[in-house]
Amino acid sequence: MPTQNRAANRAAGRTANRLQAEYRACADSFPYWLDRYGTLYDATARGWTRFRLWPSQAEAAATLERERLVVILKARQLGMTWLVVGRALWLMLFRPAATALLFSQRDDEAVHLLGFRLAGMYDRLPAWQHVRSVDVRNAHELRLSNGSAALAFPTTGGRSYTATLAIVDEADHVGGGAGGDSLDALLDAVKPTIDGGGSLVLLSTVDKDRPQSAFKRIYRAARQGPDSGWRAIFLPWSARPERDAAWYAAQQRDILARTGVLDSLYQEYPASDVEALAGRTRDRRFAAEWLARADDTGSRKLEARGWKLETESWKLEAGAGVGDPAKLLPEHNRPPASGFQLPVSGLAVWEEPQEGRWYVIGADPAEGNPRSDESAACVIDAATGDQVAVLAGQFEPAVFAAYLAALRAWYAAGLLVERNNHGHAVLLWLAEHGEGDVLRGRDGRPGWLSSGQGKPLAYDAAAEMLRDGRPRVRDPETLRQLMEVRGTSLAAGSGDHDDRATAWVLAQAAARYCAPTEAVASVILSPERVVDERETAGW
Known about the structure:
By secondary structure, the protein is of the alpha/beta class. The chain has helices spanning 2-28, 30-37, 55-66, 80-94, 107-123, 183-190, 214-224, 245-259, 263-268, 273-277, 288-294, 397-411, 423-432, 454-468, 476-484, 499-513, and strands at residues 39-42, 47-50, 69-74, 99-104, 134-137, 141-144, 149-154, 165-169, 199-204, 231-235, 347-349, 359-364, 375-381, 387-393, 414-417. It is 36% helix and 14% strand.
């Protein structure tokens, strides 16, 4: 008997050691714990099943461990709500005294997150992971004996708590219904609850009826880089391993048969975040799939280095054509500096000028006061349509004209200015300062007239390039504005901006309609002395 007892004790000790090691492994890694012990309810199989992380889910789980502010844009039925609820439960178990706030649009949805998903996952954990007791368990609260708690709220509650983690499910639909609270207002209330070091997760499919929603603004800002503080995650329809091209084609056929358009497909099962973020296609000039193909907003901009630029050393000989290397003064034909920046904020460069390329600039001038639209210019490679630089800001016409002269000189580019409203002032400034050799529109006059047939012609050129070519759009705001251009008005919706989109379209029109019969190659000019401050009244 003593021998049997000793053997049993040794076996029990080995089991305890294994459980302790496993507990430490779970406490050290949320993805590890979720993959081994997480469960979810499979609506198709009508039963609970092990989580078993897919590659896209594992990557998302690792991101939730690293980042405090995460915005997740997703297709339907990818298990992401289960994943973020699992994150809340992991914190409650392995970081005692954690508080998780679960928000959803309606109270019954929030109760479901807590009572069915989180509590259901907890109930199915092995006994050695359970805490000593569950002290409170009701529709809106689950409180554990280790001091951790999860609380469920509609999007009008939860303002008086300090949270370890706050989750807003279907965040893009918050405020979408009559009387609903807005996501902006919710975040104003919830963000302070996590300022002590907690985390905030927004996850959602998209609401196609609100292309400028707070959720989409946050996602776009996160996609542009870390400055916003948010980290963006996008999960397409294909993130679910069993979905293949045949499955997607079946969804496409079904939605087209029922609705005649693909808006529901792009809302529920987007292939790219461009498809997801685009508005409804019934009145959009550019198809979402064209823009998704052109999306190159992940390209890195060249770092600005702060060169001082003036104009005097960049003058062309009298009568020289724009971009004609044979008529440039010899001292200008030298290698460029290692980078370039105009003496203002608002210039983004993805490609410096390259010899042998021909560039064009589309320019949409504005009034330039703090409440006006941006003055915007877009530089493209005329052969490929690729966006290589953008200049945008609230520049008054004379200032904008001087910057256009500098930008044109650097790229040895053809310049096409919209000849409407403030465009006349820009063209006049260029003419008065010896820079009047600009590209001409279909009517033979300097600039492009967007009234009458001019605007449809320009947009037709842009649409053909997007449909048949492979232009790359690098600037996120340009891409966003192109998504919102209406087919009927060829302009953005009420209250939105389309200045960068217009500049991009004008650049495509310049490449299509204004190119010389024999395109001349660009010469590279050194970015020195482009804007003479004596000519700018000190701006």
